[in-house]
Amino acid sequence: MDLLEKYRLDRTKIQVMTVKEMHADNSDLEFWRSKSLDERIEAMELLRQINYGYDAATSRLQRVLEIAELEIS
């Protein structure tokens, strides 16, 4: 399953808050502390893919082989 499909946004759960209310509300902190390390890393990877894009075909490192001959003097 694709990460974007797995974490589809539930728009009925969105709450609008002021910055002051957000800092007073610890629910985000409690939510992330309740998640395992693997779940937090997976969420971080999802955010990375959303921000920078992800294409499996082009995301691999390019390998270059260069043969250097030793000059004997």
From TrEMBL:
It comes from the Bacteria. This is Uncharacterized protein. It comes from Abditibacterium utsteinense.
